[in-house]
Design brief:
The protein is mostly helical. The chain has 11 helices and 2 strands. A hairpin with a 2-residue loop joins strand 1 and strand 2. The longest helix has 31 residues. The chain is globular and about 60 Å long.
Length: 295
């Protein structure tokens, strides 16, 4: 029983990690309808910035959020305005995807140029300290990530359902043309949405950096699972992304223990395919999307 409880705890903590990374991705897709293949590199940039801020100022890694989140918001907004926005009227939507792939390659090579291929380790500052809850042992950093994922989901839901700007974002996600006829500045909403999505990945970067070393290719480690989580939860569903992340985390934890690390990914992606066959729209794809967010 103790082993099962530990695996459950490990799975939930891992799911929280996947969720905190995937929330910004599903937010961007749900509103702008663009798959951002540079999303992993946004995370990588945030992790390097956390490393630099922590080293230069001698702050606790979590204190870097005051620098990293605004910086990622600005970077995301500029990406939408300068890279994506000029291509929104293109006949072929694939051009926007190719633009994000190009941005991804550029950011990886820029990181290699500036930091080299070596890893950059942010001080853990006690975040690797195990916390015992009954028979279960969890790192304090993992608890922080899970709690932040819950708060971020709840905060975004409240923002989208209770604020005037949130209503405008939901209107654009539901029907761009109708929202524009009602006086909503669609281009400004796109920029804001991309910025908020990038800010979310900035939060993820600050939380992840003390537990995982930064490298130019660290984004690829997280982004593949983030895409799986987003599709599994239902494209554009914030709550779905959170639930999907927990499902993937639990499958990963139990499969890694009972089947071995070699078959862990086989179990994850196999279950992913089974769920999509049964529910092609994802777990929450039909009931809850950004265009129909309930309080």
């Amino acid at each position: 029983m103790d082993t099962v409880l530990q695996l459950l705890a490990n799975g939930l903590m891992l799911g929280g990690l996947f969720a905190i990374v995937a929330i910004g991705l599903t937010l961007i897709f749900g509103i702008v309808k663009v798959v951002n293949f540079a999303y992993g590199e946004f995370l990588m940039a945030g992790m390097y910035l956390t490393f630099l801020v922590t080293g230069w100022l001698g702050l606790h890694p979590f204190a870097a959020v005051i620098v990293v989140v605004p910086a990622l918001f600005l970077f995301g907004a500029l990406t939408q305005r300068l890279v994506i926005q000029p291509l929104m009227s293109a006949r072929d939507d694939h051009i926007q995807i190719f633009a994000t792939v190009g941005l991804s390659t550029a950011l990886i090579n820029l990181a290699l140029l500036v930091f080299g291929a070596d890893i950059a380790t942010t001080p853990a500052s006690g975040l690797r300290t195990p916390v015992e809850i009954g028979p279960v042992r969890i790192l304090s950093g993992q608890i922080a990530i899970f709690a932040a994922a819950v708060l971020l989901v709840a905060g975004l839901q409240l923002f989208l359902s209770r604020t005037r700007t949130g209503h405008a974002i939901r209107a654009v996600a539901q029907n761009r043309a109708a929202a524009q006829l009602m006086g909503v500045n669609v281009d400004r909403i796109f920029i804001l949405a991309f910025g908020i999505g990038a800010a979310c990945v900035g939060v993820a970067a600050v939380l992840v950096a003390p537990l995982y070393p930064a490298s130019p290719t660290i984004g690829a480690y997280f982004v593949l699972t983030a895409f799986v989580v987003v599709v599994l939860g239902g494209l554009g569903s914030i709550t779905g992304a959170f639930v999907g992340a927990l499902v993937i985390g639990l499958i990963d934890s139990f499969a890694g223990f009972y089947l071995g690390s070699d078959l862990r990914e086989v179990a994850v992606f196999g279950m992913f395919l089974v769920i999509l066959i049964l529910r092609p729209a994802g777990l929450f794809g039909r009931r809850l999307t950004l265009s129909h967010v309930s309080p």
